[in-house]
Design a protein that fits this description.
This protein is α+β, with helices and mostly antiparallel strands. It is built from 14 helices and 18 strands. The strands form four sheets. Strands 1, 2, 6, 7, 8, 9 and 18 form a seven-stranded mixed sheet that branches. It has a six-stranded antiparallel barrel with strand order 11-14-13-12-15-16. Strands 3-5-4 form a three-stranded antiparallel sheet. Strand 13 and strand 14 form a beta hairpin. Helix 1 runs parallel beside helix 14 and helix 10 crosses helix 13. It starts with a strand and ends with a helix. Its cofactor is FAD.
Length: 415
């Protein structure tokens, strides 16, 4: 018997367990893996993008999916509080481009170690077991049945993660447990995920990284659903990189919609200035072949693809390039078209979109509106944000809220 059982040793679960224990509750953290925080080890390419150094309003602007739901939780435990939480526990932090917050050491392990020590110091019992079912008596949650036994409790925090990165333990178990006690599950789909594309052009350029490019994503109605500047990468299946992962969060319905990415390869130059540069380059290298001149404008891997797209013979001397052909090149440089066929599998996604319907959860306490004693936090909820530390911020804030409320309920009952 314990006061609070937290299911899931990820960021939301660990934060919930630490918070509940520090408020005086007896807490058991149930994690199927031998170690807690496995997914944290791989976030931020192994560096752990802890949060984003932004105010609450900015954070909410970067949560396109049900951002209003987490307004209360993030307001009470904003990025500045998250930073203070880790710095107090010995993790020195730094802020990089785009407000991304990382450990000074660039080691995700330092973040996990700080959380593990906090769990130990606050008296949380760590139990290596896979939760199989929520126990319910008299219409309220009263414990958890695991593969190795049953534990009874007064409250349960469900923080099992989504369905992304299943090798870290996020296999979607929490969806089934929540659904069994009455919750609606919005069908999970990948978000912040690489994209597959039509044709062979991306495969021919695989390994090519583009920096300081701008993209626009249009749906089949020609509406721009995303526009931003940054970095991307061509792969054997299509495209990935920070720009693409963020863009994928806006491509919500591949079953009913089609999306096209338009890449501006020279965003610092408008069409008129870019045309002037082309005229200058062509004039200075009048007798050189078109494909050779292109190498001064584009990465080498991109040149053969651009030659084909423009329809200009690669060996044509640039003094013979017509005004119409130059216009075609200009259009490709400012609007390089990539047809998206769909996302990569959910197992490759950074986060899962979908999950427990937010209308069935109290946004202030993360308490279930369906069944007393149950609290839900983290990626299990139908909330997700862009890259840049915003999804971990959601995990910390909702975990904190759930841990506070679960402990509060238990301590009120005991009083």
């Amino acid at each position: 018997m314990t006061d609070v059982i937290v299911i899931g040793g990820g960021p939301a679960g660990m934060m919930a367990a630490i918070t509940a224990a520090e408020r005086g509750a007896k807490v058991c953290l149930m994690e199927r893996n031998q170690k807690v925080g496995r997914k944290l080890y791989i976030t931020g390419k192994g560096r752990c993008n802890v949060t984003n150094d932004a105010d609450v309003r900015t954070v909410l602007e970067h949560i396109p999916r049900n951002g209003r739901f987490v307004t209360s939780a993030i307001t009470r435990f904003p990025p500045e509080s998250v930073k203070a939480f880790f710095e107090k526990r010995g993790v020195a932090l730094k802020v990089e481009r785009g407000g991304r917050v990382f450990p000074v050491s660039d080691k995700a392990a330092d973040v996990v170690d700080a959380l593990f020590l906090s769990l130990r110091r606050s008296g949380v019992e760590l139990l290596e077991d896979r939760a199989a079912e929520l126990l319910v008596e008299d219409g309220a949650v009263c414990g958890v049945r695991g593969e190795h036994g049953t534990i009874r409790s007064k409250a349960v925090v469900l923080a099992t993660g989504g369905a992304s990165y299943p090798l870290t333990g996020s296999t979607g178990d929490g969806y089934a447990m929540a659904e069994k006690v009455g919750h609606t599950i919005v069908p999970p789909q990948p978000s912040l995920v690489p994209l597959e594309t039509a044709g062979e052009d991306c495969r021919r350029m695989q390994g090519l990284s583009l920096r300081n490019v701008a993209i626009r994503v249009k749906n089949q109605k020609k509406k721009v659903v995303y526009a931003e500047q940054g970095e991307m990468l061509f792969t054997h299946f299509g495209v990935t990189g920070p720009l693409i992962l963020s863009a994928s969060a806006h491509m919500r319905d591949f079953a009913k919609d089609k999306y096209t990415i338009f890449i501006d390869l020279k965003p610092a130059l408008d069409e008129e200035k870019l045309d002037q540069r082309l005229l200058r380059d062509f004039g200075e290298q009048a007798n050189r072949a078109f494909h050779n001149v292109l190498e001064g404008l584009l990465p080498r891997l991109m040149v053969p693809v651009m030659v084909e797209r423009c329809g200009i013979p690669g060996d044509l001397p640039v003094h013979s390039v017509t005004k119409g052909q130059r216009r075609r090149l200009l259009e490709e440089l400012k609007s390089f078209r990539v047809e998206v066929t769909g996302p990569r599998p959910i197992a490759e996604a950074i986060v899962t979109s979908g999950g427990v319907k937010t209308g069935e959860v109290d946004p202030h306490t993360m308490a279930s509106k369906k069944i007393p004693g149950l609290y839900l936090a983290g990626e299990l909820l139908d909330v997700d944000g862009y890259t840049g530390g915003f999804n971990l911020q959601i995990a910390w804030s909702t975990g904190r809220a759930a841990g506070e409320a679960a402990a509060g309920m238990v301590l009120v009952e005991e009083a």
